[in-house]
Amino acid sequence: MALNELYLRTAFCCMACDGEIAYEEVALLNKLALTEQVFGDLDIQMSINNYIESINKLGKVFLEEYLEDVRNACLDDSSSLQLVKIAIDTIEADNQVEYSEVSFFKRIRKQLSIKDEVILEAMPDKEDYLLPDVETEDIFDWSFSFQSIQLPELKA
After folding, report:
1. Which pLDDT does position 89 carry in this prediction?
2. Is 11 in contact with 4 (CB distance < 8 Å)?
């Protein structure tokens, strides 16, 4: 999997892991695509539509497959740091940080070899995301269904 696609899937999974996608999360995605060009030349709309179809069909399996892709990606510190930044920025985009989002981030974090010190040097105010979690299960136990994830319409 190409790095830019892994970044896009990271943003999408962090948008969808709480069961809904907020307008602000989509706006961040567009900003990352247009001004920062994080996703390269990917067809963002087509990819997101495919991800929505997959997560609505597969549910938590889609998220588990994403985590497996992160684990197998062999990212260097720079790429890992970019992935972490995308994840945290997406989680915080709607100004409502849910436990399920932080818990999902911690699952992403477990797949990366980057040291906490490197993350904290780049993002010193994000220490809460790196604290140990009380949850010990590595299996998702979501209390909602992923069968109705939809993109909100962007305001002009």
Report:
1. 97
2. no
pTM of the predicted model as reported, rounded to 2 decimal places: 0.86
pLDDT, tens digit (0-9, with 9 covering 90-100), for 8-60? 999 999 999 988 899 999 999 999 998 889 999 999 999 999 999 999 999 88
How far apart are alpha carbons 24 and 19 in whole angstroms? 15
- Give the alpha-carbon dihedral of 126, 94, 96, 50, to 10 degrees: -90
Q: At what angle do helices 60-72 and 99-110 cross, to 10 degrees?
A: 30
Q: Can you tell me the distance from the alpha carbon of 145 to that of 62, in angstroms, rounded to the nearest whole number? A: 12
- Give which of 72, 69, 63, 74 is closest to 14, Cα–Cα: 63
Cα 121 to Cα 64: distance, rounded to the nearest angstrom:
29
Backbone angles phi, psi at 40, to 5 degrees: 60, -135
SS3 label, residue 40? coil
Torsion, Cα 84 88 93 99, to 10 degrees, reads: 140
Cα–Cα distance measured from residue 70 to residue 106, given in angstroms and rounded to the nearest whole number:
13
Residue type for position 27: A
* pLDDT per residue as tens digits for the range 80-116: 999 999 999 999 999 999 988 999 999 999 999 999 9
